[in-house]
């Protein structure tokens, strides 16, 4: 599958932030967690935020008393470990110590992944988690389209839930929510549970 296809250009090359850093608004994260609680969907106590940026997602999860492993390719704030999620051969000891003896992550993975590398993040995440654990991505809703994505991702690995925002979320380019792209793009959370087979359940975030 072509990475360019999966990371379809929602923005021009000139408009894109150099390192694909687009932060998630904490308000929108809190809204997502609220509907999960409403629907009796539980997250693991341990969550890996593998594209943590400035910890906008991690901080909300930590406020909910989750144990969060925050990593990113580029360090932008304290509390984030440097790690290239899609190149695990170069894993630091600080990150490795959080994995079990089989180098698996005992918990869920939840992130707003870089759009250019969604395929790699998906494949790496699925390989790292155990059956029954969740892989959760915030993505533009248009990622649900496409025969290639359906064939390579959604058919063999159907999501268990899709949570669609009814409003346009505010995504912070380079962490700046005043330079937002989000109002032009519809977003949803896609939840995979490893081993799940069946039809996705579609829900709204109001």
User: What separation lies between the terminal Cα atoms?
Assistant: 34 Å
Query: Which structural category do the helix and sheet elements fall into?
Result: alpha/beta
> Which stretches are low in confidence, meaning pLDDT under 50 for 5 or more residues running?
1-16
Sheet with most strands: strand arrangement: 4-3-2-5-6-9-7-10
How many strand elements? 10
The string of secondary-structure elements, in order, is: HEHEHEEHEHEHEEEE
Overall spatial form: globular
Summed over residues and divided by their number, the pLDDT gives a mean of: 89
Q: Which range best describes the helical content: under 10%, 10-25%, 25-40%, 40-55%, 55-70% or over 70%?
A: 10-25%
- What Rg do the Cα atoms give? 16 Å
How many H/I helical runs? 6
Largest sheet descriptor:
8 strands, mixed
Which strand-content bin applies to the residues?
15-25%
């Amino acid at each position: 599958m072509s990475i360019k296809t999966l990371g379809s250009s929602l923005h021009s090359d000139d408009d894109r932030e150099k390192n694909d850093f687009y932060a998630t608004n904490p308000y929108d994260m809190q809204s997502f967690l609220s509907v999960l609680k409403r629907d009796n969907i539980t997250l693991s106590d341990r969550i890996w935020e593998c594209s943590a940026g400035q910890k906008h997602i991690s901080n909300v999860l930590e406020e909910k008393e989750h144990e969060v492993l925050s990593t990113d390719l580029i360090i932008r704030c304290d509390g984030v470990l440097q790690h290239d999620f899609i190149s695990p051969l170069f894993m630091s000891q600080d990150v490795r110590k959080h994995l079990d003896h089989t180098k698996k992550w005992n918990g869920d993975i939840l992130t707003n992944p870089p759009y250019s590398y969604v395929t790699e993040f998906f494949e790496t995440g699925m390989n790292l988690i155990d059956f029954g654990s969740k892989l959760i991505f915030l993505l533009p809703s248009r990622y649900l389209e496409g025969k290639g994505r359906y064939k390579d991702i959604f058919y063999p690995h159907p999501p268990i839930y899709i949570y669609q925002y009814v409003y346009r979320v505010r995504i912070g380019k380079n962490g700046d929510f005043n330079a937002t792209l989000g109002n032009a793009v519809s977003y949803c959370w896609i939840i995979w549970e490893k081993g799940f087979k069946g039809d996705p359940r579609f829900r709204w975030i109001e």
